[in-house]
Amino acid sequence: MLRSGDEYLAGIRDGRAVYIGKERVADVTDHPAFANAARMYAAMYDLKRADDMRDVLWVEDGGERYPAWFLKPRDRRDLEIRTAAHRAIAAFSHGLLGRSPDHVASSITGLSIGSQVFDRDGGGFSERIDAYYEHARSGDLYLAYAILPPQGARKPELYQSADRSPPTLRVTAEDSEGVVLNGMKMLATGAVFADELWIGNIIPLAPSQVKESVTCAVPVNAPGVALWARKPFGATQGIEFHNPLSHRFDESDSMIVFKDVHVPWERVFVHDNPALSRDIYVRTPAHYMSNHQSNVRFAAKLRLLVGLASKVARSNGARDIPAVREELADIASMEAAYGGMIDGQLQAFGETGNGYVHVNPRYMYAAINYAVEHYGRICDRVRTLMGGGVFQMPASIDVADDPALGPVFEDYWSTADEAATERMKLFHLAWDLLGSEFAMRHDQYEKFYVGPRFIVRDYNFRHVPWDDYEGLVDSIMAGYGTR
Ligand SMILES: Cc1cc2nc3c(=O)[nH]c(=O)nc-3n(C[C@H](O)[C@H](O)[C@H](O)COP(=O)(O)OP(=O)(O)OC[C@H]3O[C@@H](n4cnc5c(N)ncnc54)[C@H](O)[C@@H]3O)c2cc1C
After folding, report:
1. Which of 103, 449, 450 to mutate to test the pocket of ligand 1 (most atoms within 8 A of CB)?
2. Which CATH number fits the domain 5-282, given the four candidates 2.40.110.10, 3.40.50.1010, 2.30.130.110, 2.60.200.30?
3. What is the pTM for the complete model shown?
4. What is the pLDDT of residues 125-138, one digit of tens each?
5. Omega within 30 of 0 (cis) for the link into 187
6. Ligand 1 site: residues with CB under 6 angstroms?
7. Measuring CA to CA, how many Å separate 139 from each of 50, 64, 196, 241?
């Protein structure tokens, strides 16, 4: 099934409990904080259905059409189809929607490819994850996830001594029908726009955290689920001209609060098993597949940054200065290198051992680390190219329509090659990407969406062929003695 944009929008008008501060949002598709982004997702749904998007955004299998991010790759060609889908979605938002519908879906596809892991300690849970994969694929669902404990959960003595409920999500009751959950999970990007939420643990739990190890899926509108959204950056901040990116692409981030939420057993995938709750992501291709999407998305953002750097330098009349050209070339070379890191993941793909393939994990994690290390620095360099341009602009474009101020604005703010209004448009777009609150959220996103830096480095450490590399040193040392 391939849903239309309208069908998608109708699906998320479901009474979900979304809060902006104490305001309960009646309809996310209609609220100024969310409506524009909801329309972007709807447009993605429409784009995906186009007939000429076969093997780009959708595939056909046994008569069923479904989004390409649910394709279980059996060879390199399948990997290329998946990457083409991520590219098309990333191009649509210029990489500004991090958890677009192809992200968590890729993780679920990877979990299903390695579903035998779910049976590692008995329990027959593999059938449930396979059924969930089928459910998400056949319904063309948009999934979001919250797979971190809240920061307040780190010191249990705080709430144990003060007679407070532990903040982190856990099973508080269970019966023949399923489990009851209470607590909170951090931090679901895109959740207010999603159909369902995946809840789990990407960071290892202590062996004692048995009840926290629950891994499950719930509809966003499940009774007892509440989404506490962070401050919105979208249309509430003014007209599109002044904030063109945050206006459309604020994907939102929410804490997910559970109050006596009942989850039926068929949607519980890990239960009372702290080690397994994390292993499912690293003993299956799930993490590789979802984070390959992140790499492809990041590459789209880099292309936008390079284009912006060039246009800003041109607008400032500095683009042909040798030192500025050199700066642009260096930034563009980083974008090109990143593109190569993505293509290399397909070139040097790996095998799962059960008939499927996955992107090269080492190159994928290196690309994540590259993004963590360089995104802020690249933004800083592009912002430096902007000089004081954005602050030369008047507070509002309404000056352009003013009979007295408009001509002054056009006379004094234009350059030889560019009208004042066009310059202002460019600098406001640049500021939205590089200096606004929306921009700073993106800076934080690129640092943390996989986890903090030390976790990203740990993923990289685990995939280095240390024996081979140390063997190179050994082989040299073996070739000579002390004399
Ligand atoms: C914009 C945004 C969107 C996100 N979207 C999602 C999402 O969709 N789904 C989801 O599940 N999660 C999401 N996250 C959450 C993200 O996974 C976590 O923020 C991330 O794992 C970091 O955890 P933390 O914020 O608790 O930081 P902390 O773990 O508290 O880290 C804070 C700082 O302390 C340092 N630090 C902490 N412990 C150590 C240590 N032992 N050694 C060295 N340094 C240490 C870290 O490096 C970091 O610099 C998102 C986060 C952001 C910022």
Report:
1. 449
2. 2.40.110.10
3. 0.97
4. 999 999 999 999 99
5. yes
6. 99, 145-148, 151, 186-189, 253, 441, 444-445, 448-449, 451-454
7. 17, 11, 11, 36
